[in-house]
Amino acid sequence: MRRSLWALALVASLAGCESNDPSPAGSPGTAEQGASRSAFEVEDEGGNAWASATPEGSTYRLEAGGAKSGKLSIEPDRVKAKDSAGSTTAKVKAKDYGFKIYKDDETAVMKVKRKGAGFKIQTAEGAAVGELATKSGKGELSGDAVEVVLEGGKRVVRRGGAKVGAVSGDFSDKAASFLALTELPMAQRVAAMVFVQEHES
Q1: Can you give the C-alpha Rg of the chain in angstroms?
Q2: Phi, psi for residue 62 in degrees, rounded to 5
Q3: C-alpha span between 103 and 91 (Å, rounded)
Q4: Does the reported pTM lie above 0.85?
């Protein structure tokens, strides 16, 4: 009887060890998260393609004009954009109050604070710029009304009545509204859009 109990305990112990072995393919959570992402395309104010983005695990591969133009990498607390040469063109990093947008690895250019359902936008020095995504993707930046409308399967972003960008793919109005932040280059606006979709939606 004692031997039978000892054998059962040994089998249970070995089974527990096997269940704790890491998967050689990596974390299942990482794979599922990557699988949930879909390709998207971004247009500039003139309707010209800025880049297409293809998901590859925790990154998006960017292409423009049929050539690689960089990548977007996604981490638990940040999104980083790099050009084809590997230089950082944008970084968006989580903070207690919201997040900051950087033009490289160190230099902050915008501070974004949560406000209700949306965000309060400030310069890195704290000067007010406006608000975004306060209601259904609408907002106001430097006195210009911001809105996101669905047209032809794309989310078209307007600022002051003029188109300033568009995105196809699975993005919320809240995330897409960051294309209206024309004070910044497109790489920084796209990085902010992806950050909001990944971490603030």
Answers
A1: 22
A2: -100, 140
A3: 7
A4: no
Nearest to 178 by CA among 170, 169, 187: 187
d(CA 42, CA 135): 23
3-state class (DSSP) for residue 70: strand
Question: Residues near 136 by Cβ (< 8 Å), separated by ≥ 6?
Answer: 148, 173
Instruction: Render pLDDT for 163-173 as a digit per residue (tens, 0 to 9).
Output: 999 999 999 99
Q: Which two tokens stand for residue 92?
A: 């968006």
Could you tell me which of 185, 199, 175 has the C-alpha nearest to residue 102?
Answer: 185
Cβ atoms within 10 Å of 96's Cβ, excluding its own = 7
Rounded Cα distance between 84 and 180, Å, is 25
Residue type, 23: S
CA angle at residue 171 from 48 to 92, to 5 degrees?
85
Handedness of CA 187, 72, 178, 90 (dihedral sign): negative
Block mean pLDDT (10 aa), the chain, length 201: 42 40 32 66 96 96 95 97 97 98 98 96 98 88 97 96 97 96 98 96 74
**Distance between CA atoms of 116 and 167, rounded to whole angstroms?**
25
